[in-house]
Amino acid sequence: MSEETEISVFDILIKIDDNTWEVPIGYKAGMHVPGRIFVSGHLLGILEKETIDQVANVAMLPGIQKYSMAMPDAHLGYGFSIGGVAAFDKENGIISPGGVGFDINCGVRLIRTNLLENDVRPKLSQLLDDLFEAIPTGVGSKSRLRVSDAELDDIFINGVQWAVDKGYGVKEDLDHCESGGKIPGADPSKVSAKARKRGRPQLGTLGSGNHFLEVQYVDEIYDEELASVFGLHKGQVTFMIHCGSRGAGHQICTDHLQVLTQASRKYNIALPDKQLACAPAQSPEAQDYFKAMLCAANYAWVNRHVIMHWTREVFEKTFAEEFGDLGMHLVYDVAHNIAKLEEHTVDGKKTEVYVHRKGATRAFSPGHPDLPDDYRVTGQPVIIPGSMGTASYVLCGTKESMEISFGSACHGAGRVMSRKSAKSELHGEQVREELSLKGIQVRASQPSLIAEEAPEVYKSSSEVVDVVHDLGIAKKVAKLLPMGVIKG
Question: Any catalytic annotation for residue 329?
């Protein structure tokens, strides 16, 4: 073991409080701001030093405001850590694809029902079989939906509004998507022919990796008042959809990374890591990426929306009732991988910044004008998925999140084992049997996909959620336990 790897993370960081650790500005030459890592002492003990280095590297980028941050589910990522949050001044800052990731607007949505666990258990196996048949899954999976080039432009520009206009979902769904399921400013002319080709056949597909569709039930309510506004109660069945922008988003990131790598040199931006390729926020190169990224973000919202529509159809068939009669309302949809132009208070002044959330969730406070009317009093629902065998959580954004983390919280449990290691150390069929003994049924095209995403390859979702709750950046509302999972 090298001398460097023997340095403990506890030797590097300064403890601010039980859940806040600072990467001092002198840890690496060139840091403009300190780093802030939000973890418990136990979670810090399993954090890789390389993740701390990535937080410090981001702190060196021009125009960064306040802190380079990492949420409690942080782990090593491409350029930015997964769980990374950083805000850059609109005029003097940068935009970086590494702060968004390849799966642009990978995100999650939660749908409630008026069914109870005991209503669904007897039909669960058939329900999962039908969902697995209705929702295309896996690498390169193709949709039964085919869109034309003109429709693809419409999707890139108008997001979920396109889906509702075509009969996928209803108008009330729009209010419960972050940004209404569409960010203005998307420009399809910035999307390559290759990205369009990859995007046309994949709308309404789950994909692979950690993507899933999960049938759950509400196991515990922490805040009855907030849960009531979100329409949640104990014993109720919900389902959760986690996926992103598929091949279109990946190709858009790949295409613009090449441009921004050259732009970094053109604008003399000293990069501590080439994976942080970026350009001044108002440069043509950065704005072209941003407009293309918005196309992928809007596409991803439509992708999850179409999957939700087909899931509603399967429930209608299984329970012989219309989805409205089944109470299948969208609670909320949040993005995990995105950069957005937002207004925040920095040094006492309202400032426009490009907030990069890379494996992090927006967690806006009560009263924020970007929230729908019914959530403006409570704050934004924050949806934190667990793994196949562990709890997921619904939380609510707080005033403190705006002050501490640019209105952000964690996005999941966070990996502790690579997919390669998981496949070599675990056996998918054994994991499936162990989950079955806990009352959790799994559908996947290959056992190896189950091994890759086994519960033990992730941190404890409960411990991660407790950190953001104790910090006050999101407040616990409800705990959801899995009944059945379809793996991408």
Answer: no
